Structures are given as structure tokens and as C-alpha cells.
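Structure in, sequence out. Go:
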């Protein structure tokens, strides 16, 4: 009888450990999904800005004006901002575009991508 009780206790502890591990894995999977979506949102905006006509991207700080979902529609968990550097940074005829996407789940996370866009003239005007 004592052996059966010990075996049952051991089995209960093992099952509780598996349950705790499952919760941790689910949380990590959700964080990975959010990170992937944030990278996609940053890449989407970066490609949109890079595909504008030469000189079509003005220097300054910009945002989507609210939170967005993973598909880019409004009212989500992500906040997307982008900064376009001053003229001729890092070199003549170029501007640096940096896109930052932040979100909370329950910690604050962010991801950032950068690329160059060409000005319509060299040096930029």
C-alpha cells in the first residue's frame, strides 16, 4: 500500500511539472508569434517607403497614428513608428529610414529595421 502511495505521489509531481512546462512553452510560442508579426510589419513599412518615387520620402518622425494588428489594420497590440534621417545621411544622395515596432505581452518588446532610400538629387535638397 505504501509503495502505491509513493508511486502515485511521484506520478502527480511529474504531471505537475509537465503542466508547468506546457504553460511556459505556450507563453514562448505566443511571444515568438508576436515577434514574427512585428518583423513583418516593420518590413512592410520599410518596403513601402523604399518603393516610393525618388525624393518621395521626407525627413522626420512618423507613426501610424495608433495601434495596429499583425495584418496592418487598426486597433491591435502593435505600435509602428519610423524615422527618416536628415538629407545626405549617411552619405550624399541617401537618407536612412528606421522602422520600429513595439508591443506589450505583458513585457514591452520592440524590433527595429533600417534601410537607405535615395534622394531625387545628389546631394539631397
Amino acid at each position: 500500500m505504501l509503495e502505491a502511495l509513493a508511486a502515485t505521489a511521484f506520478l502527480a509531481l511529474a504531471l505537475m511539472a509537465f503542466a508547468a512546462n506546457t504553460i511556459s512553452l505556450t507563453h514562448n510560442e505566443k511571444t515568438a508569434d508576436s515577434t514574427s508579426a512585428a518583423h513583418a510589419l516593420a518590413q512592410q513599412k520599410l518596403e513601402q517607403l523604399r518603393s516610393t518615387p525618388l525624393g518621395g520620402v521626407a525627413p522626420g518622425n512618423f507613426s501610424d497614428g495608433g495601434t495596429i494588428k499583425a495584418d496592418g489594420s487598426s486597433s491591435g497590440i502593435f505600435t509602428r513608428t519610423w524615422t527618416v534621417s536628415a538629407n545626405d545621411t549617411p552619405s550624399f544622395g541617401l537618407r536612412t529610414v528606421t522602422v520600429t515596432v513595439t508591443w506589450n505581452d505583458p513585457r514591452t518588446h520592440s524590433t527595429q529595421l533600417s534601410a537607405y532610400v535615395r534622394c531625387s538629387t545628389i546631394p539631397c535638397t
